[in-house]
Structure formats: C-alpha cells, structure tokens
C-alpha cells in the first residue's frame, strides 16, 4: 500500500489528504475525536480530494481531458476512463476502510490481510499451564506433558455493492467522486462492523447458554460481578474489562443504599461509570439492523454486559482477502444511459480464541 500511495498522482501526501477528508467527515458526525486539518474548510478538502482522484484517473487512463478535440460527452463514454475511474475508487477504499473499521471494533477484533484466493489459518494453543509436581530427591521424572496446538480456519466470502452513476455529470462537476467514495466506504464499514459485533455477541450467547456456570451471572449483585471479573482475569492471566451497549452499562452501579451521585459527575455527563471495581468499562456502539423485519431494530442486545481480556487475546478475527475490485456495465448498454457498477470486497469473520470470557445478564 505504501508503494501504491507514492504512485498516487505523484502526490506523496495523497493518503494523508484522503484520510483527513474522511476523518473530518467523521468528526462532524461525532464519530472521531482525533486531530484534523483545520486550515481549510471541509468543502475545500472535498474539492482537493476530487482533484486528486481525477488526476489519478487521467494518469491511469492516459486521456487528456483538458486539451482534447473530443467532447466531454464522448470522454465520459470511453471504456478506459470508466475502468480507471473505478480502479481509483477501489484502491482508495482499500486505503481508508481498515482505519474506519478499527475505530469501533479494534478492542476485541484482530484484523489480517491476505492476497486474492487466500484462506486464513489460526493456531489455537492450549490455555493451560504445565503441571508443576512435588517430587522426591531420588525421583528422576514426574508425569510427562506436551503442548498441542489446534488450528481453525476462516474462508472469506465475497460481498458487493451495486450502484448506478453518471460519469458525464462527474466530469461536469455535478457529482462528487469523493462523495461517491465516501458512501462506498461508509456502506462497507457499516456492514463490516455490524457483522463483527454480531459474531462477538453470538459467541457470548454460547458462553451464556452452554458455557460453565461460573462464567455467567444474572443480575448486577456486587459480589457476583466482582467474582466473574476475577475469574476471567485469573484464568486469562490478564486484566478483564467490561463491555456492553450504553443501555446495558448504564445500569452498572455499586449496589449500595448510601450511593450518592453528584449532578456534575462523570456518570451524569456520559451516562455510565468508566471504571468500576477497578475495572475499565467500555461502551459498544449500537448498530442499525437494516435487514430486520422490525423497523428501527438495533443489532446488539441491551441486556448483556461482556467480560473479556483483550490484552490476552482478541476473540474476533477479521480476514480481508485481496484488493477491492469492480465490474462495470457501460452506459450505452442500458436504456437509461447510466453506468452500473458492482464493487466487490471479500472478507471473513469468525471467533477464534483460547481465552475465556464471561457474560452478565442485566435483569
């Protein structure tokens, strides 16, 4: 990706400019609190990104739009231009998408990248330690032990987005190439993060339904919650954290009749206690479940708090296969003269870990 970035329109800062444009957009929506370039407006950034992307399209296609005898209408129909246009969009998606996904899921998700046609194999080591035995001074050996390693695989599946666009309007400046890129990235990011969160939640449901009784607590009684935190931390040999949606962690309070909450406290300001019983609390963002039959249904349960040790091992594995690709149906092949494009991105998601986790059901 570094070599591709250096080749991008000859601008060594191409990746920085494109990512800053995306970060500024996310900051306006309250989804990013990091630094952005404030020396120019968002509208100016969009124009610069459009110019940057179009310059790369011109370079790839070998077409001179500015000093050509052909009309702009005919330029828009050139198949080389259409190929170059989507090739640039595809490359920019691969440049930006991983950062967007990492922001909300990186605490419990490990991301791997592979080439086209790759499947992903993970070694799963035993979480047990070797038994240390007391032995007599004249005893040569105790019971022999060995370390076995299991393996699990994730095979990516192709996902696609089919869109209709008008290259003529883009060349005329009536449609924004940067906005088109933004919509494609946000669409993939929304689907990816939802699949990651649902895979995690499904695995935690299995812990609740089929796991050991010691790893599931019903209710928020102080001693029960503390014991579960201690159990997960002890067996993973790493500190545990508590995770849940805002609605779930909002109820996470010390069960004391003498509890007093000041109106300017962190709990009142942000809606939850960020650290309780010496354990960090993290809010998992909710995701819209667009595929659900019920209107405005949310994807994650609001009655579960999860106890995990991310520093020991991140349970969810996200595997991205190859580069983003696209195929285009030219405008002259359709009655409405639009160019129809399908963007393809292949990924696989699974839960593979040797660490234990716990579930608190909020009553």
Protein architecture, described:
The chain is of the alpha/beta class and 363 residues long. It has helices at residues 2-7, 14-28, 42-61, 72-75, 79-105, 167-171, 177-210, 222-236, 246-249, 266-270, and strands spanning 109-114, 120-125, 149-154, 157-165, 216-218, 241-244, 275-276, 279-283, 304-308, 316-329, 339-351, 358-361. Helix content is 37%, strand content 21%. The strands form three sheets. A six-stranded mixed β-sheet has the order 5-12-9-6-8-7, with helices on both faces. It has a four-stranded mixed β-sheet with strand order 1-10-11-4, with helices on one face. Strands 2-3 form a two-stranded antiparallel ribbon. Helix 2 (14-28) runs antiparallel to helix 3 and helix 3 (42-61) crosses helix 5 (79-105). The longest helix is centred in the middle third of the chain and has 34 residues, at 177-210.
